[in-house]
C-alpha cells in the first residue's frame, strides 16, 4: 500500500517569468509530475489504456499556497501525499521543498482532487469507481505526514 | 470605483492536452489575463514601473474548481470580481463562462490572492500598502455578484 | 482565394521569462494562432471533424529569426503569408510586427511547413491530398509580399 | 574541451496537445534544457551573475525538423552538439532520440544560434565576445557527429 511519492525537478528557464521567479501556474504542472510519477511507481500510467474501458482523471479542484519563490536552476522536491480516498475520487496534498539551499525549505503547498472517469456506452465520460487493482495499492497517508 | 472586469479568450490549440481539453494549469494563466486587463482598464499596468519604487504583485493563494471542460476554439469569458480589499493585498473571484454554446455556461470558478510588494532599501521585496492612486479606484464587488 | 491573414496578440505575463522578454518558444505558439485564425477566416477549423475522414496538420519544419525582443503588454501583429502550396503540404511565412511603438517594427520572421494527414483504414495517419474545398480557397502570396 | 551534452527528459502530460503528441513548440524548450545542462556541465550557468558584467544569450535563430511524434511518457534524449563557434556567437545542433522503443530512433533534429550579450554603460544590451574562461572550454564537434 502506497501513500506518498517524491519527484525532483530542476527549475527550467522557460518556467520563469519576467519577475525572475517560477510562474505560479507552473506549480500545478509540477503537481502533475509527482502525480504521474506516483502512478508509474505503482505500475500504472495515468493514461490507462490497458484497461478494458478508456479511463481518465479529470481535476475537479486544485489549489496552491505560495510562501517563497522558486528561481531558475533551483531543485524542487514535490512530495505527494494521498490525503483522501473515496470510491470515485482521490485527493492529494503536495509539499514543495527547495532542496538546494543550506537546508530544505517548504516554499509552497498545494492540493488536487481528481475524479476517475470512464467512457460510457453512449460515448460520454462519467465518474466511475477507481479500478480495484489500482485502489488496492493506495491508502491515505498518516495524519502526521499530512500536517 | 471599479469592482469587476471581463476578458474574452478563444482557446488555443497549444493550451489543450492529450485528453482533448484545456490543461487545468491554463485556467491560472487565464485568471492572470483578466487581472492584467483589469489593471489596464484602470490606467495601470501590473508592472508598475512608473511608480517611484518598483512594485510587484506575487500570488500567495490560487485555486480553481472545474465543472466542465473547455475545448479548442471555445470562447471563454473570464469574469474577475474583487472579493476582498485589504491595505496590502487583494483577492479576486473568477467566473469562467463558455460563451459559444446555446447559452453561456459557467465551466469553472477560481480565486486568487495577491500581495503588493515593493523593493526595500536593502534590495529585498517586502509587503507594502497598495498605492493610494490605485487603491482609490477599486472596491469590493457587491455580494450578489460574488454569489 | 486567400493568401494571408493577420492576427493580433497582446503579450501575456506568463509568456515572458526571467530575461524580461517573450520566451523564444512562444513565437511558435504565436504562429499557430495566426494559422488557426487563417483557417477560421476561410470557414474551416484546423480540427476538421466535419470531414469524412479525421484529418490533421502535423508540422514537419518550423523556424524563426529573432531581431528584437517582445515584452509584456506589447501588441504584436502576426502576419501569415502562404509561401508554398503543394498537393499534400503548405508552407507559411510569418512576419511579427510590434505595433505599440512609434511605428510598427518587424521583430521576428518565421516559417512553418505543415502536411495534411488523414487516418488510414489501418488506423495510422498518412499524408493525403489537401481537401479540394479547402485547397480551392488558398493561393500563394505574391512575391512582393513574401520579400 | 567539450563539444556535446546529452539530456534526458520524460514527456509530461502538460506538454502534449489534443492531437495526443508533444506540441511542436515544446521541442524548443527541450533544446534549452540540453543547452543549460551543457553550461552546467562546464561549471557555468546560462545566467552568468558571477561575471563582472551581466550577460545573456538571446536566440537569433531557431529551427526544427520533425520526423516522428513524441507521446506522453516517452523518454527523449536531447543530444546537443556545438556546430559553430564564433567570437560572439554559438550554434548548436540538436538530435532528439526516442529511447523507450525497441531501438533508439531519431524523431527530430533542430538547431539554435545564440549571441553573447552584455549590458553596456548606457544600460543597453549589446553583442560581446564570449568570456574566455567559457570559450576556452568549448569546441566544435567533429564532422562525423554533426552529420
Mean pLDDT of chain A: 93
Spell out the helices and strands of chain A N to C: EHEEEEEEEHH
Helix/strand/pairing class of chain A, anyone? Answer: alpha+beta
Could you tell me which chain pair has the largest interface and how many residues each side has?
A-B, 22 and 22 residues
Fraction of helical residues of chain A: 10-25%
Termini distance of chain A?
A: 20 Å
Largest sheet of chain A: 5 strands, antiparallel
Question: For this entry, what is the oligomeric state of its chains?
Answer: homotetramer
| CA-atom Rg of chain A in angstroms | 16 Å
Bin the strand percentage of chain A: 35-45%
Spatial order of the strands forming the largest sheet of chain A: 1-4-5-6-3
The outline of chain A comes out as globular
Q: Give the tally of β-strands of chain A.
A: 8
**Count of helical regions of chain A:** 3
Low-confidence stretches of chain A: none
